[in-house]
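To whoever picks this up:

The parser on our side crashed when reading a file containing two proteins. I've narrowed it down to the boundary between the first structure block and the second sequence. Both blocks are reproduced below exactly, byte for byte. First block:
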Amino acid sequence: MSTQADHGHELVPRPQHTPDALRAALAAVDPARLEEMQATKDDAFAKAVEWQSLSPVQSWVLSWARDIEIARRPDLSIRYARAKGNLEHEDPAIAQEALRELSAVLGEAMNAVRE
């Protein structure tokens, strides 16, 4: 596990960017998504072979590291859930703000895992 800035209470430390470490962290913070993780991993590795490129695997790692960052940090998780819940709000201004907030949360999480 790597070191990170203090963002308040974190459910688990930020995992290293390896499939095993990501899987262990996901098992701790959102075990219902383990099957999804495995399916997307299989797809990424198949594309890597087909394309003769590591980019699908690298994208898989970053995508799951980002999602785990959100799940392991209650501050981000709450913001993410609230924004996602308002995406289809009947008030267009609320839906637009939800889209901005969702983008901000995803960006903050991605920046954190790229530190």
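<<boundary where parser fails>>
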Amino acid sequence: MEITQFSMEEILDPTNIIEGKRYEFILDVDIDEEDELYHEAGIEIRVLIAEKGEESFVLNYFIMEKAEGEYLDFALEDEELEEILTFCKEEIAKA
């Protein structure tokens, strides 16, 4: 899996109920044709990242097939989640 494009947006909490910061990432990913997650039109992963103090973690993620906009019922492997978290943390640090 390779991240080819992304967008990032901080989710603001006007009520100040949520501790820390929240970010939403939309990741376009390139998937190997032999992977069961592969779709010809492409895959997009929506990731919600929480940052609390010095710790960052994935709150939730959704995998979507781009052509139809349908959510896919797949779970990412631990290594894939770690790769995504590392990418997101680096992008947050740049912002």
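After patching the parser it read the second block fine. Helices lie at 78-94. The longest helix spans residues 78-94.
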